[in-house]
Amino acid sequence: MNLRLQSLRTTAHLSASQLKTFVMCPRKYFLAYVERVQPGFRPVAFAFGTAWHDAIGAWLSSLGTGAMSTAQLEAHLRDELHAQIHGDGPPVLFDHDEDEGTLADKAIAMLGAFLSAVPPPERALDVERAFSLDLTDPDTGQVLPLPMIGAMDAVVVEGGETVIWELKTAARRWGADQLAYDMQPTVYQLAARELGHRDAAVKLLVTTKAAKPSVQVERLSR
């Protein structure tokens, strides 16, 4: 996590993840964000997602200075996955019939699918671009007391156009409801406007964890 995002998160705020948790289960929101109950374990998907974002971010950051080779990127992903699994905090709970070795092999297969399906952009303007977004009451225009804080996975240039990349890993492709209503792209577009990228598009890149990984590429409109 970049230092600016760490600093922003030390202040009272909202995030897209918090709001999605509240909509899904208010009790879970209360335990996680009000009572701050320490969980007994971490789902392996959290560790995997963090390692994935870090590896793709490292690849994007290297484009302007000599892109990382596939072998370098694979090694980086394996090392980061190991670090996330064995880092501080509650133990990681693996899925059924899975361990660190099989998970690392799956990650490498997914990386190959991603690199085959997603050409490198012309430029990477930002990786994990932190933002703090004031929210206003739509009726009164009053600024609400807590800002929305988060980070866009990447801001890149493709075909001369500024595009926000939203990187996801998932067991399966996103369905129509997720594509239409997930709030993260909405937050990202609002934040992009505040950061000067007024007409930036949002591209969703979902790499699946299937036996044969694939990449779902969607341009989202809000």
Fill in the keyword field for this structure.
222 residues, alpha/beta, five-stranded mixed beta sheet, 23% strand
Estimated structural class: alpha/beta
Broad shape: globular
N-to-C CA distance: 27 Å
Number of strands: 7
Please state the average pLDDT score: 92
Q: Largest sheet, order of strands side by side?
A: 3-4-5-6-7
Alpha plus pi helix count: 8
- The amount of beta strand, in percent, is 15-25%
Gyration radius, in Å = 18 Å
The SSE order reads HHHEHHEHEEEHHEE
> Can you tell me the residue ranges where pLDDT is under 50 for at least 5 consecutive residues?
none
Largest sheet: 5 strands, mixed
Q: Helical residue percent?
A: 40-55%
Short description:
With 222 residues, the protein is of the alpha/beta class. It is built from 8 helices and 7 strands.
Describe the structure.
The structure is a single chain. This protein is α/β, with parallel strands linked by helices. Helix content is 43%, strand content 23%. The chain has eight helices and seven strands; from the N terminus they run αααβααβαβββααββ. The strands form two sheets. A five-stranded mixed β-sheet has the order 3-4-5-6-7. The protein has a two-stranded parallel ribbon with strand order 1-2.
